[in-house]
Amino acid sequence: MENFKELIEADIKEYQQNKRFVTNIDKDEWAFNYWVLDKLFYEDEEIIESKIIDYHDLGVDAFEIYEDAKDIYLIQNKYYSENTKITSEYVKNDFLLRPINA
Fold first, then answer.
1. DSSP state at residue 50
2. Domain coordinates of the chain in residue numbers?
3. Residue 61 in contact with residue 76, Cβ under 8 Å?
4. Per-residue b/e over 75-91, b at no fewer than 16 CB within 10 Å?
5. How far apart, in whole angstroms, are the C-alpha atoms of residue 74 and residue 7?
């Protein structure tokens, strides 16, 4: 698992170096959302930025819509350091329920 995390961090650094024109790419948590849409959903790089709604989100960081399949993916994640303490109550209420309710 540590290798996977290192690969994500390397990709994020690469985005931050090569995509300076992308708004907020210098923020690790924002670049992680870019990574999710790019690497997991294979989204077109020209529209990734418009699908990241972090900071004005009501608990949703990004989204992906597949109209043909009628699938909507609401993406919510937390990008913390290994030393960050997160309570189960926080995960249940803020991380899971708030985006669904919104």
1. G
2. 2-101
3. yes
4. bbeebeeeeeeeeeeee
5. 24
pLDDT tens sequence across 58-97:
778 899 999 999 999 988 877 666 777 777 777 666 666 7
Q: Are 34 and 48 in contact (CB under 8 A)?
A: yes
| 37/97: higher pLDDT | 37
Q: Could you report how far apart the first and last alpha carbons of the chain are, in Å?
A: 32
From the CB of residue 65, how many other CB atoms can be counted at a distance below 10 Å?
12
* pTM, 2 dp: 0.79
Give the CA-trace dihedral at 82, 86, 88, 92, to 10 degrees: -110
Q: Which position has the token pair 């350091």?
A: 81
